[in-house]
Amino acid sequence: MKLNFNMPVKVVMGSNCIKENSNLFRSFGKKAMLVTGRSSAKRNGAQKDVTDALEAQGIEYLIFDHVMSNPTVSCVYEGAALAKENLVDFIIAIGGGSPMDAGKAIALLAAQDIPKENLFSGQYGNAVLPMILIPTTAGTGSEVTPYSILTNDSQQTKTSISSPFLFPAVAFLDARYTEALSKETTVNTAIDALSHAIEGMLSVKATVMTNALAVHSMEQIADCFPNLESGDFPIEIREKLLYGSMLAGMVIAHTGTTAVHPMGYSLTYFHDIDHGRANGLLLGEYIEFVAANKPELASTIMKSLHLDSVTEWKNILDRLLGDKETITMEQAECYAEKASKSKNIANCLVKPEYEDLLRMFVKSFDLQK
Ligand code: NAP
Ligand code: FE
Questions:
Q1: Positive or negative, the Cα torsion across 267, 268, 274, 279?
Q2: Cα 126 to ligand 2 centre (Å)
Q3: What is the reported pLDDT for 231?
């Protein structure tokens, strides 16, 4: 058996975990920069819990609350300039995947001078500001991954910056912050987490440990299927979703994602479809493709989701996603072409060719071929 498992993030989960562990902030320095989206961190109580904890520890802070969904390169350079100008010692990112990913890129850019044209090169040193991440959606798992995913206009897609130095030092998971999430964002982000667990199992880098985490993650989220359909989310369900999403993050931290993510990036880039929803629109046909080539893998995944068949899986996704967006055949060809060139394809246990990717788009969107 071969294993190479590294999870350097201290994960602290539970109601009130920031207040109860505010001493953890002390070891990171005297000045912090909070990185958040426009408003949710202020409304869901996470920002106040952090600033109370920092004040209790006598740590100064400033707030960069300009992060948009699918953060841009200019946004992270703006945040990094502010961090440098104010000589901050560490970054605290609060929010969904967008502020968490922006926080990671800012932590890197505040510690090193990386020209914009080299940002996606993977060529940088090891200096990075320490990071504390606080997820307020239950989907991306970014709090335990070494990835920062940014909008890459030069390639008309989203591109990941990946480095072991991008692992945060601490992740605080308090499901109370996710209570105000709309049904739509809860569903989309839960599907993103499922996509991570599923794609992780379908990666050439999967190991017995990542598979164990993926199965556990899928079981947690599958327990929530009735709630995702009804829109009723008691706190125990919010906790399960947040826990399942974190587990799936640990999976992709080791395995990376496979074909669904690069296909979905075009739907987000060109049609502004939420990241999790974009994955969900393609996940039914992807499992169908896997089932046709490696039925035993597809059936392990269905079993972990407490389902008997791929058809049942597709029906759940259809109910959760509702009316689908439309794309044209020309767009499907362009997106299949882009996905076929993505480095994630080499990561697939069952490798789709261009024709397979095109067929998945065609069937997912019911296009006439
Ligand atoms: P998001 O873009 O971070 O947030 C979506 C929306 O939800 C925003 O309007 C945000 O408002 C709002 N929101 C966040 N928390 C909320 C709360 N507790 N209550 C109410 N509203 C809340 O969405 P996301 O799906 O979490 O993240 C998607 C991003 O993560 C994508 O860029 C994707 O590529 C990336 N991603 C990263 C990884 C990784 O490993 N790094 C993995 C998967 C996906 P505000 O703007 O006001 O905060
Ligand atoms: Fe994702």
A1: positive
A2: 25
A3: 98
Measured by CA distance, the residue closest to atom 12 of ligand 1 is 40
Ligand 1 pocket test, candidate residues 149, 160, 242, most atoms within 8 A of CB: 149
**Ligand 1 atom nearest to 151, measured from its CA:** 32
pLDDT at 369: 65
Mean pLDDT, the chain, rounded, equals: 97
d(CA 202, CA 311) in angstroms, rounded, equals: 19
Which positions ≥6 away from 134 have C-beta within 8 Å?
Answer: 18, 46, 50, 92, 93, 94, 95, 143, 171, 172, 173, 174, 177
Token pair of 46 as six digits:
């996470």
Find where tokens 């999430």 sit: 181
pLDDT of residue 105: 98
Q: Which residues of 196-223 are buried (b: 16+ CB within 10 A; e: fewer)?
A: bbbbbbbbeebbebbbebbbbbbbbbbe
- Counting ligands in written order, the one closest to the CA of 253 is 1
The stretches in the chain having pLDDT less than 50 are none
CB 93 within 8 A of CB 135: no
Q: Which of 258, 309, 306 is nearest to 288 (CA)?
A: 309
